[in-house]
Amino acid sequence: MDEDKLKKSHMKVLTEQSILRLIAFKEQKLKGYKPEFISVFTEFIEKYFKKENRSAIQLEVLKVIQRIRPKCLYYVEADTIDQIILQNLSHLVTVPDVNVRKEAVKLSITMAEMENPFHCFEILDIIEKLMNRLTNNLKLNDSLVEPSADVVTAVEGLINIFKQLYDIHSAHCIEIFYLFVHHLHEQYKCPHYEEGLIKIRKMILEFFLQIRANKHGHIGILSQNEVNYCLFIKCPVRNNHINEGTPLEKGQPEHSITCITIISCTCL
């Protein structure tokens, strides 16, 4: 029996509690700068998350990553560390446990909330697959609604990202907008009234109702009765009409136009 087979057989023998203790030990090895940090971290997340199928172990690995990541950014480029994490989250849509998917989404949102998110589109791709998984399962089995806590967490996080970054990273926010529009469209094809699905629709619609456009078509977010417009995201404007809607009346505040009817945005 070669070395790889020995390792695999040994892993099968180890109990869940044994592996959890081993993870705690390995976490200590990941603290502080070491020349081999990248290789050790890569092996750790791949072995105990990507190749593991026990939920308790996967959840513990995600917790370790959440603790380790902020500290290691002092000595490892965020681009590098996040790329390693995302490579091992690429299969998230196939993970059966919704709690694992939910925690992984939280981690992904944390990475996307950075002022300069290096891999935002990769994160959005992972989240889009989770959202599509939910709606596709609804179509396949109309009588069985699977838990949607992962998508609820994703929508909450993406709304916050949009509000934080819409005047900085407009392309990311346009992608989020279209992702929401598509998901609503898919949900209403076969509407269900499970609590999580209702919450998802409600959050997205309430978010849309906070979006405003001025007479120039610039997009803004209503917050505490104020609107800050972004110069880099516009909706189509024709003769002071927003999507050929009703023009602004004299004396009417610019931010009174809602963008709920916007079906296309462009990034300047």
Automatic annotation (TrEMBL):
<dbReference type="GO" id="GO:0046627">
    <property type="term" value="P:negative regulation of insulin receptor signaling pathway"/>
</dbReference>
<dbReference type="GO" id="GO:0032007">
    <property type="term" value="P:negative regulation of TOR signaling"/>
</dbReference>
<feature type="domain" description="Tuberin-type">
    <location>
        <begin position="149"/>
        <end position="253"/>
    </location>
</feature>
<dbReference type="InterPro" id="IPR018515">
    <property type="entry name" value="Tuberin-type_domain"/>
</dbReference>
<dbReference type="Pfam" id="PF03542">
    <property type="entry name" value="Tuberin"/>
</dbReference>
<dbReference type="GO" id="GO:0030178">
    <property type="term" value="P:negative regulation of Wnt signaling pathway"/>
</dbReference>
<dbReference type="GO" id="GO:0051726">
    <property type="term" value="P:regulation of cell cycle"/>
</dbReference>
<dbReference type="GO" id="GO:0005634">
    <property type="term" value="C:nucleus"/>
</dbReference>
<dbReference type="GO" id="GO:0005096">
    <property type="term" value="F:GTPase activator activity"/>
</dbReference>
<dbReference type="InterPro" id="IPR027107">
    <property type="entry name" value="Tuberin/Ral-act_asu"/>
</dbReference>
<dbReference type="GO" id="GO:0051898">
    <property type="term" value="P:negative regulation of phosphatidylinositol 3-kinase/protein kinase B signal transduction"/>
</dbReference>
<dbReference type="GO" id="GO:0033596">
    <property type="term" value="C:TSC1-TSC2 complex"/>
</dbReference>
<dbReference type="InterPro" id="IPR016024">
    <property type="entry name" value="ARM-type_fold"/>
</dbReference>
<protein>
    <submittedName>
        <fullName>Tuberin</fullName>
    </submittedName>
</protein>
